[in-house]
C-alpha cells in the first residue's frame, strides 16, 4: 500500500522492481531499457504470464534462451518488494526499427511432462494421494492443499488420454477446487472463499472509489440459481435407485472482519436495507438447477452439486476495477471490501479472481477482476 511507503515530504513514491534470470539479478542491466512490464495472475491452471518489452535500439541486448527462468518482484521504492512468481521463457520476439525485444514467460512449462497424454485409473484413494503421485512423477515440489481437500476420498476416477494438467483441472473442479502451478508446486484453492492453499483465511483489503481510474459492475440474472440438485444410481440397493440431493442457498453473511480503509466512511444503511441488497444479489428464490448427469454414488453427486452451486454463486455478479496506484500485494483469493459505489456493490463482499500488474513509463497500476465472496453463504442440503 502506498500509505506504508516512507518518502521525504512532498516526494512521490516511484514504482520499483527486481528481475532475476536463473537466480541472478539482472535489474540494473534492463532498468533503463524497460518499455513495459505486465504480469497476469490468473488464479487457475491458465498459466500466469509475464510480458516484458525492452529497448534494443543500440543492438547490445542478448536474447534470453527459451526455457530460462525469470523471477519477478514488484513494489515501490523504499518499501519491501512483493514476489510475483517464477516464469519460464517460452516466446522471444525481436522487431524493429527501432529495435525492440519482447519476452513472454509463463508459470507452467508447456513442454514438460505435465502436458503429456496418459491413461490411468485411480481407485479408493484420497485426493491428496492422487496429487502426491502426479507431483512426484512430474518432478514437482511438495503440493499445497488444505487438509480437508487432501483427505477427500475418491472411490474411482479415470484419466483417459488426458494430460496431467487436464486431469488435475477436472478433478479439482469436481471437488470445489481450482489448481495452479506456482514455484514448481501444485497448489489447490477453493475459489471464492478467500483462503490460501493451506485453507487459511487471507486478510481482507479495502478499496474506495478514489483508488481506481475506472470500474465495471455486471449483474447476471440468467444463471442466478439459488440451488443445485444431482441424482445418483445406487446399483447395490435398487430400491434407492432414484436418490437425489439438493443444495440450496439459505442466507448470506452480511458482516465480516474487514480492515477499514483510512478514507472509508461508515455505512448509515439500516439492517433492512442490507438485507434488501443481499436479496438483490441473490436473484430469484427457489430457482434450482438440475444436473442431467446420473452419478455413480451419493458422495460423487454431492460433490458435483456443491461444486456447481459454488460456481453459480461466484458468478452472480462481477466487478472489475483499475487501480491508479498499483498494489503488488493483491493476488487471487484476496477478499475485498469496496466503498463509494452503488449500495448493492458496497454491501457485497468480493474476492479477487484475476489480477494484472502493469509497469511502464506511464506508472504502475493494477487491474482487478472480482467475483462474489461466498465464505458467508449458508446452504441447506436436502436428500430425496
Automatic annotation (TrEMBL):
Chain residue ranges for the region called Disordered: 255-279
Pfam families recorded: Phage_GPD
Segments of skewed composition (Polar residues): 268-279
Protein name: Phage late control D family protein
Species this protein is from: Serratia inhibens
